Amino acid sequence: MRWLVLLLALVAGGCATPAFSAEQVRLTIEGEAVLDAPGLQSRAEAELSYTLSFGYVARTGQDAVSCWFARTGEAFEVDTRLWCGPVQVPGTAATTDWVPVPLKQVERNASGIRLEVQPPQVPAQGARSTPVGKLVRTDGRVTDADQGVGQAGPDFLAVLPDDGQVLDATSAMVRDDQLEVHVTGYSSPSVWPTAEGDLRAEHGVALRVLRVRVTRHSEVDSAFGQTPWRGWLPQPPELSLDVPGRRHRLPADRLPDHGSALIVYTVPVGGGPESLVLDTVGAKSLQQRVEVPTGVVVGEATKVLRRAPGPEEISVSTPMAVGASAGSVEVVRARLGRQRPVSSSAQYELATAGAGSALVELRLVGHGLPSVVGAGQTAPLFTLTVPGGQAARQVGARYGGDTVPVAVVYEVPEDVRSATFSVAAGTVTLPQLGPVAVTGGAAVEVPLDF
């Protein structure tokens, strides 16, 4: 008997066992036993392996990705989903995400509930999904859903607030008429410190960090949100980061409207070029690509979109008289780009510049002129002349409720650096006033050297 006691003591002291064995854990849903819970975990892990291989999520942490039940109450009462991780959904923060895997009830008997694994519900890029409470395995292991920052695996991409860490200076830019993105910093660190801990790359991949400065060019004409459109509406552009073997969409809601952010991602060791891609979608779609960190343009470039769109405000004025009222019309902004909205039969449509051309939108304000609804009649009298004396074609206008249009839009050569604006003489018929003469004064130069 003494030898038996000694043998049991040696076994107990020499083996590291989990808090529970598979036989001791009785997982329940609504108080009824979950049948073949280990098999559910295994099948969910097999399903998730496809998600990882296609790059929908990335590994993060030193341990293999595994699937856990989420405890919802006392003892081992669990949710009707498995949670697989830890992973990182590209476009989120650098901390832990989890992929939920629904379980469908297929049988209920005196022994318990039999469940079937459904396809993983992979979160959209930039969207986090995490369980509430403790996670448990059928062998009794328990862990927290929040596991901080671990190792970054293939396809890892986090969008983080700019905390001011020093990067190598660089310059790359891509823009369309709605979104402008400048790459101002780049680094290839072995370790990247975050607020939740140090991030390292796992074997076979390397870390990269970009600092981007984002500007979204919003419209000031409130009618855009109320007036029906003709044809394609201006669609939000799509910004992506291309790395060897993968394209990552950068979620718009993770990037600031105006400001800087850090993009932390992994690339294969010894991989190929990286590039920032901007897709203008909708009417006459356009894709632009620049290498990072060099800023080299890949493929054909629309020259006007390699230039700045122009300052938020300018102020140049030219005389204008409407009947007996002598005043002026002021250009308060000049916007240079490829596409602009214009009025069309009480709707709006999107005008697009032709090959080798650009669109210039002049925002106008009248001073000392009659306040009547007459912009549709006066718009053709506003002229823009480019160097060489050629009149620019007016492609449209936006009218508002005054004598002067809110904006007029012209097609100009894409390399134009200045133009002259004037008001041509003519007779228009205005509500309340009837036929009136319109005259202008000396033309004024509008700077376009952006």
From TrEMBL:
<protein>
    <submittedName>
        <fullName>Uncharacterized protein</fullName>
    </submittedName>
</protein>
<feature type="signal peptide">
    <location>
        <begin position="1"/>
        <end position="21"/>
    </location>
</feature>
<keyword id="KW-0732">Signal</keyword>
